[in-house]
Amino acid sequence: MRHDDITEAIGNTPLVRIDPAVHGLANIDLYAKLELLNPFGSVKDRAAWHMARPLLERAAPGDTVVELSSGNTAKALALLAGMHGLPFKSVTNRMKVPEIKELLLLLGAEIDELPGGSECLDPADTDDPLTRMHRQLAAEGGGYLHTDQYFNQRNVDAHVHGTGPEIVKDLGGRAPDYFVACVGTAGSSTGVARVLRQHNPDVEVIGLVAAKSDFIPGIRTIDEVHEVGLFDPGVYDALETVTADQAIDGLLTLVRRCGILTGPTGGGAFAGALRHLRAVDASLTGRRSAVFIVCDRLESYLSYVRDRRPELFGRPPRRNSVRTLTEAELGAAPVLGIAAAQRHVLDAGGLVVDLRNPYAYQALHIAGSINIADEVFAELLHAGLPVSRGRPLLLVCPVGEKSARYAALLRRMGHPDVHSLAGGIIAWRDAGAELVRD
Amino acid sequence: MLGLTPRIDPTIQSLLDDRDYLAELLDALGSPLALVLPQRATENVAAFRATFRRHHLSGRVHFAHKANRSSALLRELAAGEAGVDVASLGELQHALSAGFTADRIVATGPKNREFLWLAARTGVTVSADSADELAELAGIVSAHRLPRVPVTLRLSGFASSGVRQLTRRSRFGTPAGELAGLLDLLAGRADQVHLTGVAYHLDTTALPEKAVAMENCLAALDECRARGLRPRSLDIGGGFGVNYLADGAEWERWTTELGQAVLGRRPPLTWDGHGYGLRAEGGTLRGSLALYPAYRPVTGPAYLDQLLGTPAPQLGRPLGELLLDHMYDLDVEPGRALLDQCGLVLARVLAVSGDRVRLDVNARDVSLEEHGVLMDPVIVPRPGDRRTGPAGFYLLGNLCLETDLITRRKVCLPVEPRPGDLLAFVNTAGYHMDFNATHAMHQPVARKVAVYRSGGARRWCLDEQYWPVHSGQDTP
């Protein structure tokens, strides 16, 4: 398939049947709409392009595309703006996934992170982020192209003309009986539901939101949906909550059993769909069909999953790690006081290794010492002893705690003359011993 | 009923369970009446110290005096290991008279000449807000031939790289980019002032903003060292927060329902449908909730612990480890957090009509509403009556003023109040006790008493009579 421009690759995503052995539904065929296969990686490519196209067509050189977005919309807009030689700026207070931030910076986007809540309350400060952004844009004068995804009807239209008709076409001209979607800007769920209902007024539309204190990327909480201009509760036959835990369970099933490399939003849609459909499956008499949306891809959410399921990233323990030290080994860690350290190590031509961070070392350190920050030192030790056994060695850290651990470990690894500086460099300073900056 | 049940520790609960004791106090001293629990403040200091120890950090916990004017609290803290942060001439005099020595006092906030002079004369640390203030201080020291004054530099307006972290504009502190000018000034005034550290204070609950500020301050301290100065401490101010509510689910439910009420999808929860910052526009909820997050799972010492464990945005190391690496002391200035569970305000019920309860107290004596903290009071009923309940009530104050509602939220009480009952507004020692209290309309300001344990018994005295020396002392 030949294209003149990457935007032509947006849309026409596959509808893939989920193996009944995986979902276990007896009477329902479950399909995943793979929006993750859009060129920029998510369902937002459609809305971003549909909203941005008219703005980009009349853009003046130097204009900046701007949007209140914490993820996929920002990503798509950054790429689209870049194709037109324009900068993109995202304003956000919800960007909680570090990989997304890094990716946006890599794409050349500018990110403004809004401040947190006030500790000493100012009752007069009641602006919502969108109002605050409008004011900031106004204060800076013109030159901004704001796609306004939470209020822009073109966000919905992208799905009325794209996603919705594609699903109907792929189901042989029929709408599914159930449609399940996570509610973010409400654009995709509203647009698709409108098309499906034109074909089948009885289609049951289930909107998924996150529990109030929970966080699933791309899904708004039960309260936050009411801040979305496009959100109309009448669109949904039911609004149900999914938890981050369920979203990750759904993600793991789709990834490990179905070969669908979904992110947590799609995982949440799958989990929410299964929960809803399992409750009705047994009472059904004929065949039914259901569709859910797989919003985006897994790779950007590794830290999100790692924070919540560290066991999924389990690795075998590494050799020579301070974590393997026993209480007895720690108790027997060889230490030297300041006077003894000066006599035994410094005067004897021994080596002083300062384990603090390089900036702290450069600001002040013991004359003649070398700096190997503890995380680098730990890496070196996995491979074996990095220091000659024949040379006295003094380890230094702020208060003598980390250095004692490493001294115990080096002793176990066979260094006969390693010590930790008791009380660390703070005790050294407090004793009036010399520190230099060179 | 949509209640917001306050968190109550056993000491306050034991007071609430002793109706006769409270009623006697109120009969003697009038309504409203403020109770402070000085010994609890000492426990709170100890909890902060435990966080310091966990991170191997030295430094001082300074009580932000502005949170409460009580003498008892201040004197009890002076008896322990805390320092104090004073923000006015009067607070400095109060701290000195409570027994704080100069090495345990830091003077912050906007300062007039008299405040600067007394600070310099007594040798307290002055947190300099600007170059002008630093110059004025040095001028006073020079003109009056005073000894060199220890100073810290309060910085603000920190830059972040990569993602631009926005922060509300502050009226305090010198922009971090103008540090070099301050250091020039310090160098020229070395006989009058000497640098002991730098400081920031951000009015935010967000850790990422504080992480940016803290890392910038570490860089500023290193710049000071590079100029041959020997700063010892980083003062990160306060803002550690208090958790006011017993149940997070209640808070979530109430705030959800408030949004629904503002959208007109349920009956109002507030006087005249007040939205606390939320408003409806075309069926969409706009504005933002102008309320203190009354339920906060991580506050006080635990919040400090989390901040110290937060990786520095540039260097990647946890901020606590960076402080240690660079050998700086950590100074903190909690106000609210040090007064968690340290007091309550009592008021008498004057009249009840339908869902309106009129109290002999006004919204300035219990300034919960002013500070956006929502929680239910505890009713201490007269014994014997059979009552209906639970139910929702509006609490009206004793000022001849339409807006004098103790809170615009309809509070939830387990039983219907009757005249002569007491309502207790618990956990109000930090900012909600006397911060806003006035004699408007010649209504009395609440008297304040200290309740403490000594010799195995509960005792009380007027706040100004309290000194931390008790006969037959059994400090906890």
From TrEMBL, chain A:
Its cofactor is pyridoxal 5'-phosphate. InterPro entries: Cys_Synth/Cystath_Beta-Synth, Rhodanese-like_dom, Rhodanese-like_dom_sf, TrpB-like_PALP, TrpB-like_PALP_sf. It comes from the Bacteria. Residues 346-437 form the Rhodanese domain. GO terms for biological process: alpha-amino acid metabolic process. The keyword Ribosomal protein does not apply. The keyword Transferase does not apply. Keywords: Pyridoxal phosphate. This is Rhodanese domain-containing protein.
From TrEMBL, chain B:
Keywords: Decarboxylase, Lyase, Pyridoxal phosphate. SUPFAM superfamilies: Alanine racemase C-terminal domain-like (SSF50621), PLP-binding barrel (SSF51419). PROSITE patterns: ODR_DC_2_1. The keyword RNA-binding does not apply. Residues 58-247 form the Orn/DAP/Arg decarboxylase 2 N-terminal domain. Its cofactor is pyridoxal 5'-phosphate. It comes from the Bacteria. The lineage of its organism: Bacteria, Bacillati, Actinomycetota, Actinomycetes, Micromonosporales. The keyword Lyase applies. One of its GO terms (biological process) is lysine biosynthetic process via diaminopimelate. This is Diaminopimelate decarboxylase. One of its GO terms (molecular function) is diaminopimelate decarboxylase activity. Transmembrane segments: none annotated. It comes from Actinoplanes siamensis.
